[in-house]
Each structure stands twice: as C-alpha cells, then as structure tokens.
Automatic annotation (TrEMBL):
Keywords, comma-separated and alphabetical: ATP-binding, Nucleotide-binding
Entry-linked InterPro entries: ATPase_dyneun-rel_AAA, CbbQ/NirQ/NorQ/GpvN, CbbQ_C, P-loop_NTPase
Name listed for the protein in its UniProt record: Denitrification regulatory protein NirQ
Family of this protein: Belongs to the CbbQ/NirQ/NorQ/GpvN family.
Domain CbbQ/NirQ/NorQ C-terminal: 170-253
Ranges where the ATPase dynein-related AAA domain occurs: 23-157
Length: 255
C-alpha cells in the first residue's frame, strides 16, 4: 500500500472527479506530493496508472502509439495514453506544459464529454473505457508565460492546487518516509520553512518535502546533520556559492 498523507480535500475531490469521468489538473511546486497522490488514488480506485514525464520532445505519437518494425513486419504498439483509454486506467501526464503542442489535439477530445481518442495513424477512434481518467500536472512557478496552458485546455479540467503541507502534516510525512524521529522532522520542517521564506530573493524553487526526506535519510545513515542539510537540501537548491553560504547560515541557526 502506498503511503499518502492527505493535506486538504484532495482525496474527496479526486474521487468525485473520477466517479464522474472528469479529468483533473494538479498544480503545485515540485516535490510536494503530486505524483505520490496520483499513485495513491489509483490504488484506492483500483485502476492501473500510466505515468508519463513530459518533456519538450514529447509528441502525440509518444502518447498514442506508433508502428514498429519487427521480425514479421510492422506492427502497432499502443502508447501509454492509448493503453489507459482501452483498459479504463489513469493516464498521468507530469509537467504537461512541457509537451509539444500537437499533444493537445489528442488530449482535447479525451478531456471533454466526448471521451474519445482519435488515432490518426490507424484511422481508429477509440471510446474511452468507463474507468479512464486523464490527470495532468504542472508547476506554475517556473512556467514562462509562453508555455502556460491555454484557457481552452485548462477549462476542461477540475483543478486541484497543491502546496507544501502544514507543519504537523509535513513532519508526519518526513517521519513516515525516512523513519526519522519527530524531533529531527520538526527541525527539518522548521529549516525548510525558513528557507521557503527566503524563496523570492534568490531561488528559482523553494525547498520541497522531497528534499527534507532526502536529508533525513542522510542523517539516519550517520551523516552529521549540517553536512546532510548541505547535500540533501541546500546544494540541490542553488549553484551560486554566495546563496549556498547564506542558506547554510540558516542551517546553523536551526541546528
Ligand atoms: P511531485 O510529483 O509533486 O514533484 P512527489 O509526489 O514525487 O512530488 O513527492 C516527493 C516525495 O515527497 C514523495 O516521494 C514522498 O516521499 C513525499 N511526499 C510529499 N507529499 C506527500 C504526502 N502528502 N504524503 C506522502 N508522501 C509525500
């Protein structure tokens, strides 16, 4: 069973969307639990999940499928989206705004009440099986205006906004994931909150829950705490030496 600590009403909302065949858009910074949440919900709903990490070379064919050449000639291979459509599973497109624009052509008819997938290469139009659900995520923090989602796309989705969990919940997550004690979890969360408050100054992204978990693992493995914070949390945030040194001052203030 996947561990997931709910942080708001996301579980009920996702379930309501799933029951009504509505697609879901999850917004939020990196490392705040979006992927974990989707995996957990897929388990709860007993549906397979196909996760695709989108990137700027990702085309509609990567999602839908393509003809391949084998020993007996060419054959068709379904992509992850097509598999989810046929099986009634969840297709999760992580960082969807990175994908090439031609992907919207296949996503739009699936994301509204048509629930159909046109497969251009074979001329087929598939009707999505009842359990099929399209879930996409993106990080509004580092989206350029150009790359933002078009209103015609975003208005097809039920939207959930994720952020870093409240103090107690984040401590629980760090403890559950790393096996550390409450004291260390409390100090790491407090450190993260101080660093997040500096966010607007120098950093592209704030310290995520993921970084706290990494740091806690290092401490549990015997790495001295300041060194663990440097490698687990501070260095991954910035390449700028002055920034790293300033953030390490925050570390020394907490530990
Ligand atoms: P995202 O997809 O938002 O970038 P992830 O879902 O991969 O982030 O989360 C990063 C890590 O943080 C997960 O592997 C998990 O260990 C932890 N995590 C974050 N939020 C939660 C939560 N609410 N419940 C359980 N684990 C969480």
């Amino acid at each position: 069973m996947t561990f997931y600590q709910p942080v708001g009403h996301e579980v009920e909302l996702f379930r309501a969307a799933a029951d009504n065949g509505l697609p879901v858009l999850i917004k939020g910074p990196t490392g705040c639990g979006k992927t974990r949440f989707v995996r957990y919900m897929a388990e709860q709903l007993d549906r397979p999940v196909y996760t695709v990490a989108c990137h700027d070379d990702l085309t509609a064919a990567d999602l839908v499928g393509r003809h391949l050449i084998g020993p007996e000639g060419t054959y068709w291979q379904d992509g992850p989206l097509t598999r989810a459509v046929r099986e009634g599973g969840i297709c999760y497109l992580d960082e969807v705004v990175e994908a090439r624009k031609d992907t919207t052509v296949v996503l739009h008819p699936l994301a509204d009440d048509r629930r159909e997938l046109p497969i251009e290469r074979t001329g087929e139009v598939l009707n999505a099986a009842p359990g099929f659900m399209l879930v996409v995520s993106y990080n509004p923090g580092y989206q350029s205006l150009l790359k933002g989602m078009k209103p015609s796309t975003r208005q097809r989705f039920v939207s959930l906004s994720f952020d870093y969990p409240a103090t107690e919940l984040e401590q629980t997550i760090v403890m559950e994931e790393s096996g550390c004690d409450r004291d260390l979890a409390a100090q790491l969360v407090s450190l993260a909150q101080s660093v997040r408050n500096l966010k607007d100054h120098d950093l592209e992204e704030a310290a995520s829950t993921r970084l706290l978990i990494h740091t806690a693992h290092l401490v549990r493995a015997g790495v001295p705490v300041a060194r663990a914070c440097r490698s687990g949390m501070i260095e991954p945030l910035s390449d700028d030496e002055a920034t790293v040194n300033a953030l390490m001052e925050v570390v020394y203030a907490v530990f």
